[in-house]
Amino acid sequence: MASSLILSSPKPLSINPTTSRSHSLSATFSFNPARNPTFTPLFSLSSATPVKPHSKSVFCCSAKPRTRPEYIPNHIPDPNYVRVFDTTLRDGEQSPGATMTSAEKLVIARQLSRLGVDIIEAGFPASSPDDLDAVRSIAIEVGNNPIGADGHIPVICGLSRCNKRDIDAAWEAVKHAKKPRIHTFIATSEIHMQHKLRKTKEEVVQIAREMVAYARNLGCPDVEFSPEDAGRSNREFLYHILEEVIKAGATTLNIPDTVGYNLPGEFANLIADIKKNTKGIENVIISTHCQNDLGLATANTLGGVSAGARQVEVTINGIGERAGNASLEEVVLTIKCRQDEMGGVYTGINTEHIMMSSKMVQEHSGLIVQPHKAIVGANAFAHESGIHQDGMLKHKETYEIISPEDIGLFRSNEYGIVLGKLSGRHAVKTRLTELGYDISDKEFEDFFKRYKEVAEKKKRVTDEDMEALLSDEIFQPKVIWSLGEIQVTCGTLGLSTATVKLVASDGEEKIACSVGTGPVDAAYNAIDSIVQVPTVLKEYSMNSVTEGIDAIATTRVVIGGDPSITPKHTSNRETFNRTFSGSGAAMDIVVSSVRAYLSALNKMLSFVTVVKATRESSESSKTYHNTEQNSE
Ligand code: KIV
């Protein structure tokens, strides 16, 4: 194999330290989604799982399993059923820095299907050829193949502005799904119509009516319409435009609080008023879409449900434009916990898959939730103070309204299983299955090699260690460059140096030496001199996943830099530089850092390849940079 020796000069490394993860009681929890991913009853505390039963009382989530009603676009046979419309892959991906590759979106879409969401908004196909491709792949695969034994297949939806080109692109992408949906929107508030659209009310109504009819006439049986900025729109005008789109064939009317301005009571009244005053409303589903600018997205969404909305638009971990969206886990768990107080409403979400879904979205989007995030934060089930711990030990429900098992977390110390260097394949595989990871034989073999390396050095391999290694092995982009070997010298006597050997996907090996301000900087410089693409390190953080000197270190980095990837933002049309996140895990902090950097680089390189290929091959590449709003 050819090897090359390349030397490069130092460049500064910026490090944003983050707070380390709490090691209070939270460290004793691990994921526990259903062990058998094909077993997905609604609202189940799966009997197929080895989770120890926990006592239930009136204060803990205790909703009974229900059957999901048949899907009819404009009608729900059970009036208590609330559809969950997940927009993690569309609105969620609009979060700054949350770029995901098509492959990552497909993985998340599969997980959303396993979780039991009713509708997956898979993207905005007109925004770029690669987004169209991503939505199409999801429609073909996830939109046709049930993942759970209940046979559930989600609706696959694509977003479009109210113009023919967008709608054509959305239909082109979603039409392959068994249950396709087009979601089209146009702004209806005075401020948006006047300053953004520069159109009169009459023009806006006409466009909306014609475009909904156009989408239906393409053959799409399910068309959702959103009056953007409904939360600040004139009521009478809203009733009017909604009546017109109902006549034109809309099946769902989504009411967005686009700027997160409404108060919960206000938003509930808006839904109630629309329900009361819009002719034909009984023939469609009312939906909520609440942004989180004032931190009210979940409250507003629940207000909407109480007032009669039967679809909620949410994202995993609440990611989304600016301050994000209503979070799926908060809305669903509240409905589950307070079902009786909310008039008996229920969803089809299998909550045991929530933790895994949250974890996947964190890994792929690079947006890590804060430790105190409701439901899925590292501290959500941690009890630090003595009084709380005393109460918990006496009776769990003193301080716990949700059982961790309900979202796929379990108390690992209840199992009493200790894995170490003598553990064999069977024990390790069994443990992974118990943790909810359903991986292929090849993935397991790769994982097992890493497991053995760690087990040689650590007396006890914890669930957290296993998960960190799994993230490092499985939640990774396509490998273009992988780490062969690394050697660093560092200290106070001079510049740090690193020698790095990388292996390309075709097996070619390249070696480079470099100096840097520290060992990580030196290693990154060496990698840069081999890979030779412009990058800027935007964020770097490291955490240990367990306590002690032999803990595994997980590193996250965010990089940006390739000037050929400069799309325009969907809402304000400003050019932005895409960023790519990567994560790595190892007991050696430099190795962990290098793995994270390579993971982000691989993501960027495969993204650039796909963008370039689709740009060249697709006629619609002209639309890549186009974000003109709503003009025909
Ligand atoms: O926030 C918003 O208004 C939207 C619409 C497209 C539903 O995202």
From TrEMBL:
Residue span, Pyruvate carboxyltransferase domain: 82-355
A Pfam short name: LeuA_dimer
Pathway(s) it belongs to: Amino-acid biosynthesis; L-leucine biosynthesis; L-leucine from 3-methyl-2-oxobutanoate: step 1/4
Xref: InterPro entries: 2-IPM_HCS-like, 2-isopropylmalate_synth_dimer, AIPM/Hcit_synth_CS, Aldolase_TIM, LeuA/HCS_post-cat, LeuA_allosteric_dom_sf, LeuA_bact_synth, PYR_CT
Keyword Transport among UniProt keywords: no
One GO MF term: 2-isopropylmalate synthase activity
Coiled coil: none
Annotated spans, Disordered: 1-21
Top-level taxonomic group: Eukaryota
Biological process (GO), any one: L-leucine biosynthetic process
Gene3D superfamilies: 1.10.238.260, 3.30.160.270, Aldolase class I
EC number: 2.3.3.13
Electron transport as UniProt keyword: no
PROSITE patterns reported in the protein's UniProt record: AIPM_HOMOCIT_SYNTH_1 (PS00815), PYR_CT (PS50991)
Catalysed reactions listed for this entry: 3-methyl-2-oxobutanoate + acetyl-CoA + H2O = (2S)-2-isopropylmalate + CoA + H(+)
Listed Low complexity bias regions: 1-15
Keywords tagged on the record: Amino-acid biosynthesis, Branched-chain amino acid biosynthesis, Leucine biosynthesis, Metal-binding, Transferase
GO cellular component, one term: chloroplast
Family that this chain belongs to: Belongs to the alpha-IPM synthase/homocitrate synthase family. LeuA type 1 subfamily.
NCBIfam families in UniProt: leuA_bact, PRK00915.1-3
Identification of the protein by name: 2-isopropylmalate synthase
